[in-house]
C-alpha cells in the first residue's frame, strides 16, 4: 500500500493559508523579525519548504504596530521625525531609531503650535497606496478620512477597504488626478510612495488636489530620480551625492509650484533592493530647501 506523504509548501504561503499573515510580504516580515517557528525552531527563510501539517507558530509582539505592509514603518518614521504630536501620542517609542528632523521656520503655522506636522482630524490623500501601509499609519494617527489612490486594482488590504474612513480610488493614475475626480473637496494632507516615475511628474496633480495650507509628505526614491544610466549594480543608488541630488531635484520642482520645505529625513527602512529613500515635508509658502538639511539627512540615514 502506497504511503501518502504530507504536502510541502513555502513557509510564507503557508502562513497566509493559515491566516497567520495577511500576505506573503507580511509573512516575510514576520520571518525576518524572528517571530516564526516551525516545529519549535525559529525559521529564517520565507522559501523554506514545510509540511502542511507542521507546527507553525507566530510569536506575538505587543510592541510591534504590525502595519498592513512594510511601507507603514517608513511613513511612521517620517511622522516621528516631523511631528511632536506623533512622538508623544501613537508613535511614542515605536520608531526609536529615528531622530526628530530639523524643521524649517514656519513649521508650526497651520500645524499646531510647536506640534510640527499634524495628522489628526485631517482629510488625507495617499498617492500610490498599494496594500495600504501609509493609509494604515494615517488612520492610526487620527486622520478623519484617507483617499487611497493607486493605478492598480484590489491591492488595498481588506481591513482598510472595509474601513468607512477610507475611500478607494483604484485604477487611477496619480499623474491625472483632478480635484473633481476626488469629489471636489481639496485634501489637507498628501502622502506618497510612488515607484517608476519621478516625483516631478506627479507633483502638479497633487498640488491641484491639495488645499492652500495642505502639507505634502512625499517619499523621494533616488533610483527613479537620477536616471537609469547612473544606477549602480542591482539598480541601487550607492552615491551619497546622487541621493542628495535627487532630493534637491524634487524640492526644486516643488518650488516651481510654490512649495517650500519644512523638513527632510531619511526613511528608517531601505527599499526592497537596498535603496536609501527620503521624505520631504512641503507646504505652500514655506521656506526654500536648506541644502544643509539634505546633507544631514543623507549623512544620518542608512548608508
Automatic annotation (TrEMBL):
<dbReference type="InterPro" id="IPR002877">
    <property type="entry name" value="RNA_MeTrfase_FtsJ_dom"/>
</dbReference>
<dbReference type="InterPro" id="IPR002942">
    <property type="entry name" value="S4_RNA-bd"/>
</dbReference>
<dbReference type="GO" id="GO:0003723">
    <property type="term" value="F:RNA binding"/>
</dbReference>
<comment type="similarity">
    <text>Belongs to the TlyA family.</text>
</comment>
<dbReference type="InterPro" id="IPR036986">
    <property type="entry name" value="S4_RNA-bd_sf"/>
</dbReference>
<dbReference type="Pfam" id="PF01479">
    <property type="entry name" value="S4"/>
</dbReference>
<feature type="domain" description="RNA-binding S4">
    <location>
        <begin position="9"/>
        <end position="76"/>
    </location>
</feature>
<protein>
    <submittedName>
        <fullName>Hemolysin A</fullName>
    </submittedName>
</protein>
<keyword id="KW-0694">RNA-binding</keyword>
<dbReference type="InterPro" id="IPR029063">
    <property type="entry name" value="SAM-dependent_MTases_sf"/>
</dbReference>
<dbReference type="InterPro" id="IPR047048">
    <property type="entry name" value="TlyA"/>
</dbReference>
<dbReference type="GO" id="GO:0032259">
    <property type="term" value="P:methylation"/>
</dbReference>
<dbReference type="Pfam" id="PF01728">
    <property type="entry name" value="FtsJ"/>
</dbReference>
<dbReference type="GO" id="GO:0008168">
    <property type="term" value="F:methyltransferase activity"/>
</dbReference>
<dbReference type="InterPro" id="IPR004538">
    <property type="entry name" value="Hemolysin_A/TlyA"/>
</dbReference>
